[in-house]
Design brief:
By secondary structure, the protein is of the alpha+beta class. It folds into 2 domains: about 1-45; about 50-195, Glutaredoxin (3-Layer(aba) Sandwich). The protein has helices at about 20-45, 95-110, 125-135, 145-150, 180-195, and strands at about 1-5, 10-15, 20, 65, 75, 85-90, 115-120, 140-145, 160-165, 170-175.
Length: about 200
Amino acid sequence: MTETVSDNGYVSDTKRGQSVTRLGRFVPLLLFLGLAVLFGVGLTLNPREIPSPLIGKPVPTFSLPPVKGRTLGLSSADLKGEVSLVNVFASWCAACRAEHPLLMDLKERGVVPIHGLNYKDKPEDAERWLNELGDSYTRTGADIDGRVGIDWGVYGVPETFVIDRDGRIAYKHIGQLTPQALRDKIIPLINELRK
C-alpha cells in the first residue's frame, strides 16, 4: 500500500489500483451518527402536538346534516360567536369511547359548548353510540364520507379543536383527551380566549 497526495491535496491510500480517501472512511460513521441524532430528536417530540397549518385560520366552510336521531347538524356558521370545542369522533374508535366521560363532565359543568363531528361512521352506529354513552354535544354533524374531516386536516380520531369566538381554529389536540391535557392546555386556552 502506498500513500499519495493528489493535485487537489487529498491524501489517499492506493492498493491494487483502488483509491480511498481518508475522509471517505468516515462517511458511513458520519451518516450513522446523523441518523441517530435525528432519531433521538424525533423521540422527544410529542405526536399530539403536530403543528396544524389551520391554527389561526377560519374553520373550513362546511355544512353537515345531523347524526341520525339528532335534530341539530353542524356548520361553519355555528362556530362563530362563542368559544367552543369541536370533537372529531366515531363509534368504532376505542379512544373516543375512553375520552367520552371527560366530554360529558365538561358538558355537565357547562365549561364550554362542545360540537361533535362524527367521522366516517355508519348512521345507526353513531346514533346507538350517543344513546348508550350520552350525548355531550350541542350540535353533531355526520361526516359520513370524511370530506369535511379532510378539510379540517384530520389525521384520525379522536381529535379536538378549540375554536375562538371569531370562528378561527386556536388549537388542535390529536388523540385521546386526558385530564392533564384539559387542565394544562385546553381549559386555560378557553379561559384566555374568553377575555
